[in-house]
């Protein structure tokens, strides 16, 4: 049983050594623990610090590509390493690495495909005021859309089984947390939560540049991903609302017409007709999108099987811009492309 702990990092040279140091290397039920750091275009020497701190592998993006891209790079490489379980944690030392054994236990016991570290936002002193309210609200929305028992959807402290990691494919450029849960619900993967407490924050969140930006980005991500997997529901709901408004306008015109005042309400009749036409067109778009989604499901299954075949043959050393750490130091400047 091989566990790979991946750590996406961007300019985290100060906190990364403590994160790597506190990752347990001996866990009951696990034969080997590997640490992979994904340096997402850092300019403060994060890659070198990670190698010196004891990371087994350090992957480097030449430029900053964002959290979602760094996460996907780490997952892909962990699978090439033959990971049976993949744990994702943050490089800012927000999460307690000592909780990794508890985090992976449901997967070891084959009860879950994905396990989320629940930061217990309601009682966590690191969450206050509007931030706490928004975190809870967002989790409820994701819980409703994914139909999964999720209490802390934005949490990045997670464990994935090998099959779950093979089936999930991040397409968002913002964050992976919400998207992967929608996908997990779509694939009917078993998801559990493990309560944890977080360490005191070491810096402001880079992902949340402001409440307005966070709400917009998260909302767009949810709409995009849900529409991708359930287009008929999304477009069907929009078409139903438009049709209801159109029928209401027609009913209003008929009422005034019946009482002899229809002459002054022709405009509302025309507007209602336009709304009904648009509703019909949106409904047709929904049907077309549903057919595309059916093809997407076939492509996802084909991609899953292709990954399985590819990973049986391709060694991880084919990764470009890879640092292979050896003990406390690294082969500085080595490129295994």
Describe this structure as you would to a colleague:
The longest helix is centred in the C-terminal third of the chain and has 48 residues, at 266-313. Strand 2, helix 2 (46-53) and strand 3 (57-61) form a beta-alpha-beta unit. The protein has a 9-stranded mixed sheet with strand order 7-5-6-4-1-2-3-8-9, sandwiched between helices. It starts with a strand and ends in a 7-residue tail after the last strand. The chain has 2 domains: 2-229, Spore Coat Polysaccharide Biosynthesis Protein SpsA, Chain A (Alpha-Beta Complex); 231-312. The model is unreliable at 317-321 and 326-337 (pLDDT under 50). With 337 residues, the protein is an alpha/beta fold. Helices cover 49% and strands 14% of the residues. The protein has 10 helices and 9 strands.
Q: Key features?
A:
single chain, 337 residues, alpha/beta, Spore Coat Polysaccharide Biosynthesis Protein SpsA, Chain A, 2 domains, nine-stranded mixed sheet, 10 helices, disordered C terminus
The class by helix and strand makeup works out as alpha/beta
| Helix count from the secondary structure assignment | 10
Task: Please compute the radius of gyration using only Cα atoms.
Answer: 24 Å
Strand order of the largest sheet: 7-5-6-4-1-2-3-8-9
Secondary-structure element pattern, one letter each: EHEHEHEHEHEHHEHHHEE
Q: What is the CATH C level class of the largest domain, in words? A: Alpha Beta
Overall CATH architecture of the largest domain:
Alpha-Beta Complex
Estimated share of beta-strand residues = 5-15%
Q: Assembly state here?
A: single chain
CATH superfamily of the largest domain: Spore Coat Polysaccharide Biosynthesis Protein SpsA, Chain A
Cα-to-Cα separation, first versus last residue: 28 Å
Please report the total strand number as a whole number.
9
């Amino acid at each position: 049983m091989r566990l790979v702990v991946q750590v996406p990092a961007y300019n985290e040279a100060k906190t990364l050594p403590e994160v790597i140091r506190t990752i347990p290397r001996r866990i009951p039920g696990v034969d080997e623990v590997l640490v992979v750091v994904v340096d997402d275009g850092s300019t403060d020497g994060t890659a070198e610090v990670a190698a010196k701190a004891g990371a087994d592998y350090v992957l480097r993006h030449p430029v900053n590509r964002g959290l979602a891209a760094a996460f996907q790079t780490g997952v892909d490489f962990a699978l090439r390493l033959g990971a049976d379980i993949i744990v994702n944690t943050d490089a800012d030392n927000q999460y307690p690495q000592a909780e990794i054994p508890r985090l992976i236990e449901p997967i070891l016991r084959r009860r879950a495909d994905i396990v989320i570290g629940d930061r217990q936002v309601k009682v966590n002193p690191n969450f206050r005021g509007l931030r706490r309210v928004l975190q809870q609200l967002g989790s409820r929305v994701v819980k409703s859309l994914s139909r999964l028992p999720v209490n802390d959807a934005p949490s990045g402290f997670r464990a994935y089984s090998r099959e779950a990691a093979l089936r999930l494919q991040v397409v968002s450029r913002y964050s992976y947390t919400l998207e992967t849960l929608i996908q997990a619900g779509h694939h009917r993967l078993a998801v559990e939560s493990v309560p944890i407490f977080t360490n005191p924050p070491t810096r402001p969140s880079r992902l949340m540049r402001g409440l307005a930006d966070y709400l917009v980005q998260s909302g767009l991500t949810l709409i995009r991903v849900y529409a991708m997997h359930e287009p008929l529901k999304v477009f069907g709901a929009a078409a139903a609302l438009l049709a209801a408004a159109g029928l209401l306008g027609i009913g209003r015109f008929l009422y005034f017409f019946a009482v002899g005042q229809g002459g002054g309400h022709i405009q509302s009749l025309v507007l209602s007709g336009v709304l009904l036409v648009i509703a019909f067109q949106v409904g047709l778009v929904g049907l077309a999108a549903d057919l595309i989604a059916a093809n997407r499901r076939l492509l996802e299954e084909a991609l899953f099987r292709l990954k399985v075949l590819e990973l049986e043959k391709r060694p991880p050393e084919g990764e470009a811009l890879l640092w292979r750490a050896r003990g406390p130091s690294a082969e500085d400047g080595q490129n295994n492309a």
